[in-house]
Amino acid sequence: MRECISVHIGQAGIQVGNACWELYCLEHGIQPDGQMPSDKTVGGGDDAFNTFFSETRAGKHVPRAVFVDLEPTVIDEVRTGTYRQLFHPEQLISGKEDAANNFARGHYTSKYFSPFLVLFILQSG
């Protein structure tokens, strides 16, 4: 079985990713809370569906995705949006402050926001 992990980085990546996962849910009949009323995965079915979603023991479908940004505002839109129950909190990684389009500020903020945290979550997920 194939598995795709989507990594959405920065404001544009997160906004596009949020819209993309909303569309995936609509296409596969998944509700905003991750439940599928007519569970198509029971009894085998189409393995293509499981490429993008993993199913928990409780029957909830969780996207194989990670959202990352230095600034929490855009990720907070995902955390409080319509599909807030779809994502696990560990998939939404944000820092404390924005780089304000300043390379040096973003570069030296890395001591507060570790890319190793993102790699760890990707490897353990």
From TrEMBL:
Pfam families on file: Tubulin (PF00091)
Catalytic activity: GTP + H2O = GDP + phosphate + H(+)
Keyword check for Hydrolase: yes
Domain Tubulin/FtsZ GTPase: 3-109
Superkingdom of this protein's organism: Eukaryota
Molecular-function GO term, any one: hydrolase activity
InterPro entries recorded: Alpha_tubulin (IPR002452), Tubulin (IPR000217), Tubulin/FtsZ_GTPase_sf (IPR036525), Tubulin_FtsZ_GTPase (IPR003008)
Keywords: GTP-binding, Hydrolase, Magnesium, Microtubule, Nucleotide-binding
Gene Ontology cellular-component terms listed: microtubule
Function: Tubulin is the major constituent of microtubules, a cylinder consisting of laterally associated linear protofilaments composed of alpha- and beta-tubulin heterodimers. Microtubules grow by the addition of GTP-tubulin dimers to the microtubule end, where a stabilizing cap forms. Below the cap, tubulin dimers are in GDP-bound state, owing to GTPase activity of alpha-tubulin.
Family statement: Belongs to the tubulin family.
Name of the protein described by the UniProt record: Tubulin/FtsZ GTPase domain-containing protein
Organism: Ilex paraguariensis (yerba mate)
